[in-house]
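Researcher: Here's a chain I'd like modeled. Treat it as a single chain, no partners, no ligands.
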Amino acid sequence: MVTQRINEISYAIREIAAVASEVAKSGKKIYHLNIGDPVIYDFQTPAYISQALADASFAGKNYYVDSLGAPELREEISKSLIQKYKVKVSTEDILVTSGVTEAIFFLIATLLENKNEILIPGPSYPLYINYAKFFDGIPVEYELDEDNDWEPNIDDLRKKINDKTKAILICSPNNPTGVMYSEKMIKQIIDIAGEFNLPIISDEIYDQILYEKPFNSPAVLSNDVPIIGLNGFSKSHLATGWRLGYMYYYDPDNKLADLKAGIAKLARARLSASSIAQYAAIEILKNPGTHTKEMVNKLKERRDYSYTRLRKIEGITCVKPNGAFYLFPKLDFNEFKNWKDDKEFIIDLLKTTGICGVYGSGFGDYGKNHFRLTFLPKKEILETVYDLLESFLTKIH
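Model: Modeled as a single isolated chain. Structure tokens:
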């Protein structure tokens, strides 16, 4: 017997990977474009970062650290936020977590119960949907308008706020669309949050993976609206398996005191995030290196190629992403009547061609009729993938 809350959890990104494993047993080559993990492709953790991890262990840092995070790391994160974005956050307002995943868990657990609501972008990273339901809350999607480069529909966002709304989530650059909200749009969301006395959660894990425009930090654009920022070392610093993230509170009027205290209780209950990863992260922040810039340069070329190929396929439309490493194309089911929905399409595509993407409905209601592909693989792999995709759809068409 398992609880009902467990039965309701679904995570399309990993679930399609399980299907791919079964398909691989038949001998078919699988092209993994489903997981947003650069390290499983040709992006390797820099040697000096791996060395810092080993050095921390050999130096005896193999113990539980402060539940809120090693003080030295929190100090470096504070300095980094000031240096990069002019966000002034004290070390006391920083909490180190086991990846952004744990930060989301802490936040939702502390914010939601009794069918209270959180406003999340639609489409959305599925963990927000899962955790909201898990803690007896309701994830309410506000529309990202595909016809307007996936910018939030501000009128839709406003009308979905009610007495049960506890927070507004901004995920920019966005997963799964890969699009960063404009500065103007973020300011509008901040104004609405202030009007209704709501905090903003800002998922910033892709803040350094940008192609044309600099990152818009909500904490810089806000005066008195509290911002809870989520970030980490997984993507930009090629340390996905380390599971090291952090959250910060920009809270000039101390409106989040109860929330911070509640989250601190949860953090103490689980002891601490990885000690040696934290001490290695200090070196990352002190010496950020050139690996992120080099990765972004490679990814920009792969994005441009992938986007160009997708645009040439009849029956597919796609908005060009300006951040992260995802494309979120839309399939015209009026032209392709072979599948009842995007999940059936993705599974058929996987079994026929070996291309492993993620069905869009796994990212919420606004993801329906879409699918997500990463452009992390080398260009020659992407060439094969798009040749297979084009051939597959041409035969169906």
